[in-house]
Amino acid sequence: MRYRKLGNSELTISEVSFGCMSLESEAIAKELIHYAIDKGVNYFDTADLYQSGENEVMLGKSIKGIRNDLIIATKVGNQLRNDHSGWDWNPSKKYIIEAVEKSLLRLQTDYIDLYQLHGGTIDDPIDETIDAFETLKKSGKIRYYGISSIRPNVIKEYVKRSNIISVMMQYSLLDRRPEEECLDLLLKKNIGVLTRGTVAKGLLAGKPVKAYLEHDEAQVASAVAILNQISKGGKTMCQSAINYVLAHPAITSAVLGARSKDQLKECLQYDNDQNLSVEDMLVLKNGVTQNRYTAHR
């Protein structure tokens, strides 16, 4: 496993890390998390929204006793309704200050390494939201903060107005929207990028082909064929998809979810000693259309 510095911070995280959203039970969570740790993963990403907080509980229990050896990230902003009928967006300072206490309790820790705004719109009270994170940072409840967003206009505002160290965004061979301008901007500002959706809901890891974003079924099938074509020497399509994302200099870590040990094992054998060649990258970029953001620009 190799490690990369996360933006302008003191956090050094594994370039492949663990997204906890897909964890289904306490027993599975403990098995997968400890397997990942044994393979060098040190960054674990969850959210207060996942399973109404139970995801944080599972992570907290699984890392009890070794928490200080790991980098733990969670997210805030989606307020669950009291009747459990759903959630509402709430980026207010009051809510963020209250929510962090519940996350700390569920995670069984007294600090969060990276606290992320879980979404965001251009109409939010952005300065108030930033003030909430800065307040938590000064109090020691969080070490750093970032945002999880795919909206260019929101990302640009936080780049201009805050001290975020990271942006989590969807990025893969089938979702190249960040390549248009966001990745270069974040690289220039030394803000780390954490990717999700790296294998495009499994389409780049062997799941049956279907339409994805602006790509119709035939275009997805073509992308899969090209990815298979460049996957040589025992490397799987999934591993090549991970290598594609990690090749961009703005990316700090590919945050990957897994429901089974076999899935996780494949992801963690992504061949970190042999990156995709320049020729392979050209084949992929020329063979798969670069889509662009059409909203929130």
Per-chain topology:
Layout: E1 3-5, E2 12-14, E3 16-19, H1 26-38, E4 43-45, H2 54-62, E5 71-76, E6 78-80, E7 87-89, H3 93-107, E8 112-118, H4 126-139, E9 142-148, H5 152-161, E10 166-170, H6 182-188, E11 192-196, H7 217-230, H8 237-246, E12 251-256, H9 261-268, H10 278-287
Parallel strand pairs: 3-4, 3-12, 4-5, 5-8, 8-9, 9-10, 10-11, 11-12
Antiparallel strand pairs: 1-2, 6-7
Helix pairs in contact: 1-2, 1-9, 2-3, 3-4, 7-10
Any key phrases for this structure?
alpha/beta; eight-stranded parallel beta barrel; two-stranded antiparallel ribbon; 10 helices
Question: What is the helical fraction, as a range of percent?
Answer: 25-40%
Largest sheet: spatial strand order: 3-4-5-8-9-10-11-12
Low-confidence stretches: none
- Gross geometry: globular
* Proportion in β-strands: 15-25%
Number of strands: 12
Give structural notes.
The chain has 297 residues and is an alpha/beta fold. Helices cover 37% and strands 19% of the residues. It has helices spanning 26-38, 54-62, 93-107, 126-139, 152-161, 182-188, 217-230, 237-246, 261-268, 278-287, and strands spanning 3-5, 12-14, 16-19, 43-45, 71-76, 78-80, 87-89, 112-118, 142-148, 166-170, 192-196, 251-256. It is globular.
